[in-house]
Design brief:
mainly alpha, globular
């Protein structure tokens, strides 16, 4: 019995197993290139690798074991002014000819935003800068969500993300922007996409 027959008996598609192995090898190849400072790696290649990582894991914590990818992205070191948070990721994509991440890529965008949030207090990091980067990804994602709030595949995004966005803007003392997302949450509550308990918790924190 060859390995393809064995995998078939185990319920695994040999072609899918081969494809996953190729993706893993692609990631490892990029990791080795990043460790060689003599060979520059473009941000577009890193974003492609982040997409590959999501294909392999397909979970919200898909970046947990690949911090080297986010650390290698120049966006993680770029300064972000408070008044540029809403536009900076869009501008970064264009300036670096990145793969265009759109609404259909929301798990990747949310995962990247979450990574900046969760690592904002790591030793050696500028917490305020990390919060701004997190908000930049959230802003880009939520700008694409608006208008699609009632679609079944996206209806959870505003109610799930906006409370954190409100908290982060309050942390930066940017209360006008926090108020804007409070108003969106009011609409989510009226549309019954946000529980009363969660809504009251956000309002209490904002007040």
């Amino acid at each position: 019995m060859d390995w393809k027959d064995l995998l078939g008996q185990l319920g695994e598609d040999p072609e899918e197993v081969k494809h996953r192995q190729e993706l893993k090898q692609k990631l490892e190849g990029l990791r080795l290139r990043l460790s060689d400072i003599s060979e520059p790696v473009k941000d577009a290649e890193i974003v492609e690798a982040i997409q590959v990582r999501f294909k392999l894991v397909s979970d919200s914590d898909f970046l947990d074991e690949t911090a080297w990818l986010m650390d290698a992205l120049s966006f993680t070191r770029a300064p972000i002014a408070s008044d540029m948070i809403q536009e900076v990721w869009q501008d970064f994509q264009k300036a670096n000819d990145l793969p265009h991440l759109s609404l259909g890529d929301y798990p990747i965008l949310e995962g990247m935003a979450n990574w900046y949030f969760e690592h904002r207090q790591d030793p050696g990091r500028d917490e305020t800068a990390m919060v701004r980067r997190s908000l930049a990804l959230y802003e880009y994602l939520l700008a694409h969500v608006r208008g699609h709030e009632s679609a079944s595949e996206y209806e959870h995004l505003l109610s799930g993300i906006c409370p954190r966005v409100v908290d982060l803007y309050c942390e930066l003392h940017m209360y006008d922007r926090a108020k804007f997302y409070i108003q969106l949450l009011v609409m989510e509550r009226k549309s019954d996409r946000l529980s009363e308990e969660d809504y009251l918790e956000v309002m209490k924190a904002y007040e």
